[in-house]
Amino acid sequence: MPQTESNPIAIGTKAADIQLPDSRGREHHLVDFESKPALLVAFISNRCPFVILLREALAQFGREYEAKGLQIIAINSNDTAAHPEETLARIGQEVETYGYTFPYLKDETQEVAKAYGAACTPDFFLFGADRKLAYHGQFDDARPGNGKPVTGADLRAAVDAVLAGSKPAASQIPSIGCNIKWEPGNEPSWFSKAA
C-alpha cells in the first residue's frame, strides 16, 4: 500500500491556532486548553489502514494520558467530497465506536493541516506547556502487516518526558501512513502525488 512519511518539522515550532468543530457542533480553540502541561495534536483518519491499526490503542492511550495532564486533539483533514467516510457525522461515529475521550475535529478547509505541515495519517505533534513542538514522530513501529504489537512506545516515552519537564529523545522516527487526501487544487506546495 502507498505510504507517506511525516514532514520534517523543526523542534521548537509553535503550535498553530485551531478553531474547528466536533460532531456535536461545538467549536474547539487552541486557547481552550492553555492550562494543560502538554498538548498532542494528532491528524488521523476514519479509513486509513495505518490509523485503523492503532485506533483502539490510541483511545486507551488517551484515557491513560489525559489523566496525567496531556490534552489530545485529533483532527481529520481529509477531503470529504472524494471520501464520504471522512465526514463530520462519521467522525462522531468513530468517537462513539472507539471510545475517544478527546475532541476529534473536522478541518474542512484543510487550512489547519497546512499550518501544521501535516502530511499523513497518523501524524503526531507533541507540544510542551509553552506550546513549542517537542516531538514529531511515530506512535510506535507497528505497521499494517508487519506483525509488531501496537504499544505506543515512542509517543509514550515522548509524553512522559514532556510531562516530567524534560525533552524527548532528539532522534525521532517519522510517522508513516496514508497521505492526507487533499481537495483537488488545494494541495500544499510540498505534496507529492506520487506518494
Radius of gyration based on Cα positions: 15 Å
CATH superfamily caption: Glutaredoxin
pLDDT averaged over residues: 95
Class from helix and strand fractions: alpha+beta
- The level 1 CATH classification is Alpha Beta
Largest sheet: 5 strands, mixed
Percent helix among the residues? 10-25%
Uncertain spans? none
Q: What is the ordering of alpha helices and beta strands?
A: EEEEHEHEHEEEHE
In CATH, the topology is named Glutaredoxin
The end-to-end span amounts to 10 Å
Within the largest sheet, what's the order of strands? 6-5-4-8-9
Number of self-contained structural domains: 1
How many helices?
A: 4
The count of β-strands is 10
Strand content: 15-25%
Shape type: globular
What is the name of the CATH architecture? 3-Layer(aba) Sandwich
